[in-house]
């Protein structure tokens, strides 16, 4: 029982269409006695274009005091001259992940019965595809370390330095082992590119080996990120928990989404396991300017992100009820496309009923 302080950031494009559906389902799934005390934050492209503000410090401070965050998507149409790339992505989304210490970016992938994978039956063989990517969320090439020299000249040099600290790698690898040890198959795959990125690779490799000795029941293997693209498309069943750095994890999880029913189903949690700040739940997808404003977006990824939020806040039964309702909805999906709101209504009705 109790009230959950929920920060809601719809953001841009289809973020504004999928978040209301996730909220409908959250309300329907809330255990009795649990209420959401919502605060909507006007952040994203519209605010930036209107005021020049991306994430004022006072707003960040207020968000730090919330219980959890539900976010839709941020970012404009690539190439929009009014919205330079990175302004919102770095200034809003990554700023929240860094400032709130979301070092575990949790991205589960399952092929649900009824969801359509582009992989053929000869690949899937009726076997379960059910893995989770533990993507590092606060380091790697995302920290903004780097720069550009002699910009615009033929002698231009640009660098993006990947930051990998023992502190940062150890805490995310440990979290991944902990998750692996609680799953039936107890398997962890480190994904990296240790054959080329030898400095960062050595840190990830060494800490994974060291922590492995504390988890004798977890089977550990290693795969280069390029080969991971092969295995995700020819035998995705082999994965259980994948742990990887920030950029590899970004790329791996879009492919993981595509093979398990599409980006419209892929949920994520930016988790602060130490609970020093609120965690943030959001679909893996972006603002999809190509379909925005047309009620064409699938809200399921946002709805399943709501399930991760419920689970994180200690309501696993409510989270399971949302997942079950999504499963039932997927099994029932016909050829006729439904509006974003119709999908949300149908899933909310299943949760309530
Ligand atoms: P995107 O995920 O927005 O879209 C990729 C493709 O998937 C598009 O064809 C889109 O129509 C489709 N798609 C995405 N979500 C869908 C849904 N729920 N239902 C049906 N189809 C869906 O990626 P992009 O086009 O590379 O990026 C667009 C903008 O979003 C950029 O500004 C980018 O920086 C930003 N972005 C933000 C986030 C985030 O907020 N977490 C994530 C990715 C991209
Ligand atoms: C994601 C997005 C973000 C990322 C961008 C928009 C900063 O692609 O959440 O996957 O790279 O993490
Ligand atoms: Mn991404």
Automatic annotation (TrEMBL):
Q: Which residues bind NAD(+)?
A: 286-298
Q: Give the Isopropylmalate dehydrogenase-like domain ranges.
A: 5-347
Pathway where this protein functions: Amino-acid biosynthesis; L-leucine biosynthesis; L-leucine from 3-methyl-2-oxobutanoate: step 3/4
The UniProt record gives the binding positions of substrate as 97, 107, 135, 226
| Database matches in Gene3D superfamilies | Isopropylmalate Dehydrogenase
Q: How is the cofactor bound?
A: Binds 1 Mg(2+) or Mn(2+) ion per subunit.
Record's keyword annotation contains Cytoplasm: yes
- For whether the record's keyword set contains Amino-acid biosynthesis, the answer is yes
Its main localization is: cytoplasm
Q: What are its GO cellular component terms?
A: cytoplasm
At what residues does the UniProt record annotate the site feature described as Important for catalysis? Answer: 142, 193
Q: What is its EC number?
A: 1.1.1.85
Q: Which cofactor does it need?
A: Mg(2+); Mn(2+)
PROSITE patterns hit by this protein: IDH_IMDH (PS00470)
The entry lists its GO molecular-function terms as: 3-isopropylmalate dehydrogenase activity; magnesium ion binding; NAD binding
* Gene Ontology process terms (BP): L-leucine biosynthetic process
Catalytic activity entry: (2R,3S)-3-isopropylmalate + NAD(+) = 4-methyl-2-oxopentanoate + CO2 + NADH
Q: Which domain of life is it from?
A: Bacteria
Keywords for this entry?
Answer: Amino-acid biosynthesis, Branched-chain amino acid biosynthesis, Cytoplasm, Leucine biosynthesis, Magnesium, Manganese, Metal-binding, NAD, Oxidoreductase
Name the residues that bind Mg(2+): 226, 250, 254
Q: How does it assemble?
A: Homodimer.
Name the family: Belongs to the isocitrate and isopropylmalate dehydrogenases family. LeuB type 2 subfamily.
Q: What function is annotated for this protein?
A: Catalyzes the oxidation of 3-carboxy-2-hydroxy-4-methylpentanoate (3-isopropylmalate) to 3-carboxy-4-methyl-2-oxopentanoate. The product decarboxylates to 4-methyl-2 oxopentanoate.
Protein name per the record: 3-isopropylmalate dehydrogenase
Give the originating organism. Answer: Nocardioides bruguierae
